[in-house]
Amino acid sequence: MARLLDEAGIDILLVGDSLGMMVLGFPDTTHVTLDHMIHHTAAVVRAKPKALIVADLPYLTYTTAKKTVSNARHLMEAGAEAVKLEGGLEMEPQIRALIKAKIPVMGHLGMLPQSIHQEGGVYRIKGKTPQEQEYFKKSMSLFSQIGVFAVVLELVQSDVARQLTDHSDIPTIGIGSGDGCDGQVLVTPDLIGLCPWFKPGFVTSEADVAREIKRAVGQFKKRVKGSK
Description:
- The protein is of the alpha/beta class.
- The chain has helices at 2-7, 19-22, 34-45, 65-77, 92-100, 130-146, 158-166, 188-192, 209-226, and strands at 12-15, 52-56, 82-84, 105-110, 150-154, 172-175, 183-184.
- Strands 1-2-3-4-5-6-7 form a seven-stranded parallel β-sheet.
């Protein structure tokens, strides 16, 4: 998959902890471990892509600055070229420690999937209140000051995402946050229609791979049974 995406000209391959849901069958990303992320990151690296490889720090692996750097180094040793972690202002110590250790950092604001249980199990649009908007602005300003190279904006109200993009020198990468961001990221199974039983409302699938797989398997089954 990494090789196909790279050959299609994708700029960044994000090895996201959404693999827990899309590949490993977990109900949410909080079940993903560092070992899972190392395993999948190394697999992507073996495709030798030209794209930048960014790996998610999974749930509870960056609770302290020291722990963050240690765990991020494991991902870098697996071949990641940068790491991503969720959160804004409260992540300053961890981000500063990573950058001091010369580990490039991608930020993540808006809906934070690793906080899904605090959200009552519901993925919510963020940035609706003045408090949230101010928090995002301050977080983007901090990111700019300390050296974060890009920020994912997930499920941020579209007008707010556009304002954050327009008033920051850091590239923003949107997912479910409208078309006002500098770039867009999408979970590959959503993009290609691999998991039709789960499809976020903001996703437009560009293919129906699930149907093709079932068609191919059905043809194989028919051919094998017909040869008996």
